Amino acid sequence: MKKFIALSVIFILALSSCAFGASEFDETWLVTSDTTAKGAAGNVFAELVRDKVKAADAGLVIDYFPNGELGGDADLLRQAQKGYIAITVCQTAPVVSFIPEVAVFDLPMVFARYDGDTIDKVLNGDSEFHAQISKAYERAGLHLLGFMQNATYRLATANKNLQTLTDFKGLQIRTMENKNHMDFWTAIGAEPTPLAWAELYISLQNGTVSAQENAADTCASAHFDEVQKYLACTNHILYCNQMCINDKIYKALSPEHRAVLDKAVSEALQEMRPKLEAIDQTNKDKLKAGGMTIIEYDNSFFSDVLAVQGVKDLYKRIDTATNGLASTLEKSLAEVAEASKPTPKDPAPEVTKPEAPAPAQTPAE
Known about the structure:
Blueprint: E1 2-4, H1 12-15, E2 27-34, H2 41-56, E3 60-65, H3 73-82, E4 87-91, H4 116-124, H5 128-139, E5 142-148, E6 153-158, E7 172-175, H6 179-187, E8 191-194, H7 197-206, E9 211-215, H8 216-221, E10 230-238, E11 241-246, H9 247-252, H10 255-289, E12 293-295, H11 299-306, H12 309-321, H13 325-340
Parallel strand pairs: 1-2, 2-3, 2-4, 7-8, 7-9, 10-12
Antiparallel strand pairs: 4-11, 5-11, 6-9, 6-10
């Protein structure tokens, strides 16, 4: 008999008596849902977790509904909060409305100078940041299972050669309707314009806007190489998905089932990392083959951006709004990066060679 730990909102009233059954049940089902399309990174991640839980054969089942079958991101987060479903996967932006501290992911370019290993240790490892963000999830009635990333980012496409910071001035760029994102682009002199996704391609084609920002896979699937000349690797926002579960449901699981779920998520996160890197590079190559010029930046560009007063002000506002978590994130990233540096080897001690014995003197003839 199945024990439904979480139920879709459609069936919750009819089956609520089954939600927390006793030990006679031999299966525990966790209703899981997201809005990601088939084959997208979030979908592959959720399927990996589902399959690993199934392979453990411990009586835990992930009942997975992808592609928005049970609602949009906000709907699913709300359902997870209330326990109507158990688990949801989404990017970090929609979570901010439920957990204000997640706005730290809106810090522009905060991750841009770090590699995937460093970021993973901060987001999923034994860091001060991970401890604090986990508590923020719990205050919202959720339990953080993990963040999926591998130092891939949202990028900018444009019909302007964006080589330096000054090239962004006056750039009409379509952004998400997110105040922090819009404030960033305004701070560096661009003109951010929220625009419905369905209108974006034609707006780029006819010049209503001259740029947009998205991850490489989104840019490629939308065929922006047909209407944009440049792909600028601005790395302004980390391309990151989070997975969370209703906190009460998580705590109601048996220790064995919690261990199975945690292990499945941890293994899936590690397996997804090279996949994310491959997806990012494959789509950059596709855009380049379509005629786009790829613009790469070194750390001096990111330093120039972060030195802009408007960007500094945005960092301060986000730090205040997240009760200092933004500062904790910066500190944790710097500490992990420093600890990861190879320890310089002491120079080998100089070996003094013994002097060669003086040659025996031959008696004068």
